[in-house]
Write a structure and sequence with these properties.
By secondary structure, the protein is mainly alpha-helical. It contains 5 helices and 2 strands. The chain starts with a strand and ends with a helix.
């Protein structure tokens, strides 16, 4: 079994899936979709950006995903756009 930062992949994914649960169904779906489809192939850098995204407040995430505001960081903005472009 592969190890990510000393934690098994399964344990890491379960922890991240829990962090994707935001209490707003639409946000949950967006974040979990990227976790399932984008995270496995993401670089370590992009995975770090995803962790930063998960540290953001729900109302800010919602404004970013709807396009009402742009994330303050270019890397966050690119990841938000990639998540928005994932097919449902």
């Amino acid at each position: 079994m592969a190890v990510v930062r000393g934690v098994s992949d399964d344990a890491e994914l379960k922890r991240l899936r829990w962090r994707c649960r935001r209490g707003m169904k639409e946000l949950d779906q967006l974040l979990e979709r990227w976790l399932d489809r984008g995270y496995p192939a993401a670089s370590e850098r992009e995975r770090g950006v995803f962790l930063s995204l998960l540290d953001s407040e729900d109302d800010r995430l919602w404004r970013w995903f709807l396009g009402y505001e742009a994330p303050p960081d270019a890397e966050l903005a690119r990841l938000v756009q990639r998540i928005r472009e994932l097919p449902a």
